[in-house]
Design a protein that fits this description.
It is built from seven helices and five strands, in the order H-E-H-E-E-E-E-H-H-H-H-H. The longest helix is centred in the first third of the chain and has 12 residues.
Amino acid sequence: MTDTTGDDRRLPPALADLARAPVDYADGKGIDFEPYEEFCPAEETTELMRQWTGNPELDGDAFRVFGQDGTGGVVALWRVRTGRPLTEQPVVFLGSEGETGVVAGNLSDFLWVLAEGIGPLESVLCDDHSPRPDGALPALAARHATTPRRPARTIISEARAEFPAFDEHIEALCR
C-alpha cells in the first residue's frame, strides 16, 4: 500500500496496467488521455506546478502526475487525504488553458469513468457524460476497481460534491 506521507512514486498496479492499455482517441470521438508509465518525478511536478500557477514558492508534493491529454493538460492524484494510500486520493485535472476540476474521488472511480469512454478533460469541461464504453478499459476497471461500477456522471458529481473548493484551492496558489 502506498502512503501519502512518503515520497513513493511507484505507480499503483491499476495505473501500471492502464499505462499498458490501449486508450483510443478515435479521431476525437474516443478518450483524449495518455497515461504515463511512471509518475512524473518530483522535480518535474514542482516545475509544472510553478509554471501552471506562476508561483515560484510551490512544490509539487501534493500531486502525483500520471498522464496528460492531447493539449498538455495533466491528470494527477491529489494527495489531500492525509495518511491514506494514493489509490484513495482524488483524481484531478489541470488543463493547458487553466481548466481545473476533480474527475473522480479515487483511482477506482477514475477507472470506471474511463471505462465509460470519458476522459479527464471531458469530465471537467462537458456536462454530457453519456457512456461510450471503450475497448479494454471496462475490463481493466473491473479487474482493479474496489468501488462498485456507477455511471460516470454519478462519479463525477460525487467527486465535485466532496471537493467543491478544489478550483478555489488551485486559484489561491496562483500568482
